[in-house]
Amino acid sequence: MTLTRYSRVAVFGGVYSNHLALAAAIRDAKLREVDAMVCLGDLGAFGPNPDRVFPILHSNDVSVVKGNYDDSISRGLDDCQCGYTEPRDNYYARLSYQYTFKNTSAKNRAWMGTFPDEIRFQLGDLTVLACHGSPRQMNEFLWESTTPTHFLDMLSREHKTDVIVSTHTGIHWERRWGDFNAYVNVGALGRPANDGRTEVWYSVLEAEGQDLAVEFVPVTYDHEALAREMRDEELPEEFVETILTGWWTTCLEILPGKERAAGKF
Ligand SMILES: [Fe+2]
Questions:
Q1: Considering only CA atoms, which of 190, 155, 180 is closest in space to residue 40?
Q2: Reported pTM
Q3: How many domains does the chain have?
Q4: Deepest in the core among 97, 109, 166, 194, taking most CB within 10 A?
Q5: Is the pLDDT score of 147 beyond 80?
Q6: pLDDT of residue 123
Q7: Domain range holding 184?
């Protein structure tokens, strides 16, 4: 199969209904003259008014990979398949999921069901596999501190790709190995990276031949407007606090020790 070949792409992680950040990231990516924009799924969750995300994706030709949230909402499952294990994480995940399900139109739910589990393309001379969690499991968490390089190498070999890009964890990082292999967690647009900054993050990948450049881009957007919208929708004040402070307050029991220690809570 011949893959579409690009030289510079923008890759967006979980949107979590943050339509203001999505619009800001797309504006930024266009200024950087990217050839294509890819979103790695989880359009809903956490934020307000999930249906506001869809027209932005449509009108800007963003390709979307299916995330666990999109899979659950499109199939009408009773849980987000987020992969949390602690009751406190699951309590907030359930609140988000019920709100998002109730506020996503039937048309948008059906569209989410059509997203592919992965998108492959050529970047320079490198092959890239874009997925949500990992190439083998949609809701696998790939954290920097707990993901060995030999495991990433195994995934690359088994799935026949030079580069893997994914999201799902919400914290951006990258790893290089071999002559030109790479894994890039592109971060998330939906909530800040638990670093005390209100910006959210996306990634620009560029390759010349086998030479890959990865840039993590902070996105400034009107986070106070998003917070107002969240309060209007009566979403938990803990979620609003994260948007206003840059620190995670919920769904963080899942963090490994090192990533947890880097946050405030
Ligand atoms: Fe996810």
A1: 190
A2: 0.97
A3: 1
A4: 166
A5: yes
A6: 98
A7: 5-262
160: Cβ–Cβ under 8 A, 6 or more apart, which residues?
127
**Ligand 1 midpoint to CA 168 (Å):** 4
How many Å lie between the centroid of ligand 1 and the Cα of residue 11?
A: 15
Would you say how long the chain is, in residues?
Answer: 265
**Which of 37, 34, 7, 6 lies closest to 22 in space, CA to CA?**
37
CA distance 4 to 1: 10
- Residue 129 maps to which CATH number? 3.60.21.10
- The more confidently predicted of residues 260 and 48 is 48
- Which token pair is 184? 């890039």
Give the pLDDT band of residue 253 (cuts 50, 70, 90): confident
